[in-house]
Design a protein that fits this description.
- The protein contains two helices and nine strands; from the N terminus they run ββαβββββββα.
- It is mainly β.
- The protein has one domain: Metal Binding Protein, Guanine Nucleotide Exchange Factor, Chain A, CATH 2.170.150.
- It binds zinc ion (2 copies).
Length: 136
């Protein structure tokens, strides 16, 4: 599935071919910190299909518990996370951040990773109030 994406400030734009069956919610503590929220949500891009069409990415290399190094790409201006992929040339999961994808409404999560660190409330998403839009 071909998608288009962009960062919050609009300096970064990209295209990719994704595999919707790999839509994954990630509860790992790195995703919680890096996203500043309860979990990460990514979808796999088909090998070498990611094309930056506008702007210049910034990078942070993180080392996982397994010792594997992942390259995290983000917009250096607004900080929007764009993707994570293996830091070396090995093929591996290229996880695009679903929130940056224009077609995100058609992407439903297919799996959850690292449930061990899942925050308690995420299992039962029950809230006293639901806001459809910003209250006026
Ligand atoms: Zn930006
Ligand atoms: Zn994660």
């Amino acid at each position: 599935m071909n998608i288009d994406g962009k960062c919050l400030c609009g300096q970064i734009e990209f295209k990719a071919d994704i595999d919707p069956t790999t839509s994954t919610i990630c509860h790992c503590t790195d995703c919680q910190i890096n996203s500043g929220t309860a979990f990460g949500y990514v979808v796999g891009a088909v090998n070498n299909s990611f094309k930056l069409t506008k702007g210049k990415l910034s990078f942070y290399i993180k080392t996982a518990d397994s010792g594997a190094k992942r390259e995290l790409a983000f917009c250096g201006s607004c900080g929007t996370r764009i993707y994570a992929r293996p830091a070396d040339e090995n093929p591996g999961f290229f996880g695009l951040r679903v929130g940056t994808i224009l077609q995100k409404r058609s992407l439903h999560p297919k799996r959850q990773a690292w449930k061990r660190s899942c925050l308690d409330f995420v299992e039962l998403i029950e809230t006293e109030q639901t806001f459809e839009t910003q209250p006026r």
